[in-house]
């Protein structure tokens, strides 16, 4: 008896040929509209700067931001530019040295432009990224970002995460109304269900309290503060092992490289003019020990033979050099408890597998949504009304965020090796489908790059891959065994994508306009 995910899969597969044709035509039209609109967005930011400052607000500070990573520092600059008095509390203001957040998708770069932060990728030896190269079993295919309709400056950017963050922190701190302070927030201050501020400790052990009508928590993937603000269901499907390759060239310059390796993908991309980041995915929550040499052995014996020959020597040299870092890959759907006086942003709020490099794009896109919602508000002091109004944030962000999140989770499963014949057929079908070029690569890469993150397009391409896989099995010589594998392929594809969509929220993702919060108007306008 087929389960309900399988039935949904069969339904989608049956509809797909018809709808896909319509969708491709529609996608092209809307793509042109959105690209033409982007320069206007840039202008509106410049002219609106400083508009929202409440001249008669009672407190010293309008907004407290906890954490000045990617989300916190971009948000501090954005709200500061809109005239808010912002107090940022960051645990460590020195330059971070991490293996996360190093490739910003072009969709994220467009958001950076919208926020007026595009100069933060300048002077840090950031590299332009123009697309991906996908490798499987000795074959490879190039998947360029569809950038033709954008300004020549628009592309992905890859860099040292710490350098990017420092640039954003400096830019935020250059505003007179933004105050950055080093300290660790230890708790949120709550009164009758409303968050009034935070309690924090400085490095020399002094303790302070800070108060503001709105506290935005951006304390990242290991957040200690999110517990009271959301229902965190964190999944850790794998870990990334990070290395830096030197003195070598990528086979495709200025491209991300994804190797569909066994047991799971390996990534390469430039992070400066002389360094290439390699991230090796290791399934599960435990990685071989770095200290006792197991990791080096694993990288040399299991991973190295699957690395493109052009990178092999540099890979071995990087392993021998020994600067091996690891990081858990977490995913967590957004499940907020709307709380007066507080909001979560960035990884503290929502995470997805980093395979597709979507985290910073989602964080920056969320900041644009929030900024637009807050802009007309003069006063943030009525926490309950503000909280009700900001419920629309959770719906307005969904189509973009959920598309990027779902793609990341689904692609990670499809790109990982499996002993199941149906899963390995799906993996091969995905590689071959993307290799077809034209709309078959442009659609998925538009989703991944954040240039056109539309939920329906995601579902259609996902099932188009599944149908393509079934077609390859049945044409030209169908057999009962091949038909059975095809049926299991559809079932397995459904079992991958529908649970992720369910966790994201079907209604908010596909029908946001039916959610009442979508239409909330700013409280000041209601008055
Ligand atoms: C291995 C890996 C690779 C990734 N690669 C990419 C990629 O290529 N592209 C991409 O877009 N995304 C990538 N991501 C995701 C991306 O890194 C995150 O989405 C992004 O960094 C989220 O920004 P954030 O501001 O929420 O968190 P962070 O950038 O982690 O910032 C959190 C900040 O809060 C501070 N902080 C924490 N606790 C406290 C406290 N109690 N008090 C005060 N301050 C505090 C921290 O010091 C830190 O500065 C990757 C993730 C992983 C795990």
Automatic annotation (TrEMBL):
Record domain Squalene epoxidase: where: 212-479
Q: Where are the transmembrane segments?
A: 6-25
Enumerate the subcellular locations listed in this protein's record, separating them with semicolons: Membrane
The cofactors required by this protein are:
FAD
What are the protein's UniProt keywords? FAD, Flavoprotein, Membrane, Oxidoreductase, Transmembrane, Transmembrane helix
Q: Which Pfam families match?
A: NAD_binding_8, SE
Origin, by domain of life?
Eukaryota
- What main location does UniProt list? membrane
Function recorded in the entry: Catalyzes the stereospecific oxidation of squalene to (S)-2,3-epoxysqualene, and is considered to be a rate-limiting enzyme in steroid biosynthesis.
Name the record gives this protein: Squalene monooxygenase
Q: Taxonomic lineage of this organism?
A: Eukaryota, Viridiplantae, Streptophyta, Embryophyta, Tracheophyta
């Amino acid at each position: 008896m087929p389960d309900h995910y399988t039935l949904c899969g069969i339904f989608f597969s049956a509809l797909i040929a018809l709808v896909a044709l319509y969708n491709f035509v529609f996608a092209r039209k809307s793509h042109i509209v959105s690209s033409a609109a982007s320069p206007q967005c840039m202008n509106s930011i410049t002219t609106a700067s400083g508009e929202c400052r409440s001249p008669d607000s009672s407190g010293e500070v309008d907004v407290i931001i906890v954490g000045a990573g990617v989300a916190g520092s971009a948000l501090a600059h954005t709200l500061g530019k809109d005239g808010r008095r912002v107090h940022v509390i960051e645990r460590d203001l020195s330059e971070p040295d991490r293996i996360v957040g190093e490739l910003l998708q072009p969709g994220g770069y467009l958001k950076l432009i919208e926020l007026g932060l595009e100069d933060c990728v300048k002077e840090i030896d950031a590299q332009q990224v123009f697309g991906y190269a996908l490798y499987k079993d000795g074959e490879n295919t190039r998947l360029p970002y569809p950038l033709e309709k954008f300004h020549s400056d628009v592309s992905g950017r890859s860099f040292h995460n710490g350098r990017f963050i420092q640039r954003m922190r400096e830019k935020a701190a250059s505003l007179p109304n933004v105050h950055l302070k080093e300290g660790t927030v230890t708790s949120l201050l709550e009164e009758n269900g409303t968050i009034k501020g935070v309690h924090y400790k400085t490095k020399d052990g002094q303790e302070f309290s800070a108060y503001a009508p709105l506290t935005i928590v951006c304390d990242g993937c290991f957040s200690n503060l999110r517990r009271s603000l959301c229902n965190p269901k964190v999944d850790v499907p794998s870990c990334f092992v990070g290395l830096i390759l030197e003195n070598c060239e990528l086979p495709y310059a200025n491209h991300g490289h994804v190797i569909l390796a066994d047991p799971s993908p390996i990534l390469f991309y430039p992070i400066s003019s002389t360094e290439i980041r390699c991230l090796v995915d290791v399934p599960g929550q435990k990685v071989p020990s770095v200290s006792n040499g197991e990791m080096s052995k694993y990288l040399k014996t299991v991973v190295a033979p699957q690395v493109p020959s052009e990178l092999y020597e540099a890979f071995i040299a990087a392993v021998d050099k020994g600067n091996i870092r690891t990081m858990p890959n977490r995913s967590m759907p957004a499940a907020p408890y709307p709380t007066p006086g507080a909001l979560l942003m960035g990884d503290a709020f929502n995470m997805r597998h980093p395979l597709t490099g979507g985290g910073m794009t989602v964080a920056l896109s969320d900041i644009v949504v929030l900024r637009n919602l807050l802009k007309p508000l003069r006063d943030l002091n009525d926490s309950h009304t503000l909280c009700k109004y900001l419920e629309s944030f959770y719906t307005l962000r969904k189509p973009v965020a959920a598309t990027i999140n779902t793609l990341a989770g689904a692609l990670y499963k499809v790109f990982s090796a499996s002993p199941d014949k149906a899963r390995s057929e799906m993996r091969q079908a995905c590689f071959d489908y993307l290799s077809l070029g034209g709309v078959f690569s442009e659609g998925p890469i538009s989703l991944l790059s954040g240039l056109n993150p539309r939920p329906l397009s995601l579902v259609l391409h996902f099932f188009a891959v599944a149908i393509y896989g079934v077609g390859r099995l049945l044409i030209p010589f169908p057999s009962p065994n091949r038909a059975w594998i095809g049926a299991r392929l559809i079932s397995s594809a459904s079992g991958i994508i529908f649970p992720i969509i369910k966790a994201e929220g079907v209604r908010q993702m596909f029908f946001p306009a039916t959610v009442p919060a979508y239409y909330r108007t700013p409280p000041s306008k209601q008055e």
